[in-house]
Every structure is written in structure tokens, then in C-alpha cells.
Amino acid sequence: MGHIGFQEILILVVVLVLLFGARRIPELARSMGRGINEFKHGLREKGDDQKTDPPPRVEEPSSKRDSSR
């Protein structure tokens, strides 16, 4: 279980050709690759933003400091 053999790949290719046609498959693969690259780029940008931003500074309200005196 979990291993895809030659026969399964061949069946998938035949089904894809029947559904989309031979001319359309390279176009679909290209657009899918672009989408994956954009997704990865967005993840990298999100990670970079979190690393460079300093954590927000939390200050105590002035009334708390005054009441302790």
C-alpha cells in the first residue's frame, strides 16, 4: 500500500488523455507548476516577514505602576 506501480501510472495517463486531450495536458501541467511555485514563494515571504519583525512590546498601564507606590 502506498506504492504506485507502472500499471497505475499508465492507467492515470490514459484517463487524463481521455478527459483532457493530448494537447491540453502540457498546458495544465505548466499552470499547475506555476501555481505550486507561487504558493512556495508566498510561504517563503510569510516566513521572512515573521523572522524580521520584532515581537510587539507590551507596556504596563501607568495606573498599575502608580498604585504600587
UniProtKB/TrEMBL annotation:
Basic and acidic residues: compositionally biased ranges: 37-69
Topological relation to the membrane, as annotated: Single-pass membrane protein
Alphabetized UniProt keyword annotations: Cell membrane, Membrane, Protein transport, Translocation, Transmembrane, Transmembrane helix, Transport
An example Gene Ontology biological process: protein transport by the Tat complex
An example Gene Ontology molecular-function term: protein transmembrane transporter activity
GO CC, alphabetical: TAT protein transport complex
Record's subcellular location: Cell membrane
Family matches, as InterPro entries: TatA/B/E, TatA/E
Keyword Transport: yes
Region annotation Disordered: where it falls in the sequence: 36-69
Family to which the UniProt record says this protein belongs: Belongs to the TatA/E family.
Subunit structure: Forms a complex with TatC.
PANTHER family, sorted: SEC-INDEPENDENT PROTEIN TRANSLOCASE PROTEIN TATA
Functional summary from the UniProt entry: Part of the twin-arginine translocation (Tat) system that transports large folded proteins containing a characteristic twin-arginine motif in their signal peptide across membranes. TatA could form the protein-conducting channel of the Tat system.
Protein name: Sec-independent protein translocase protein TatA
Gene designation: tatA
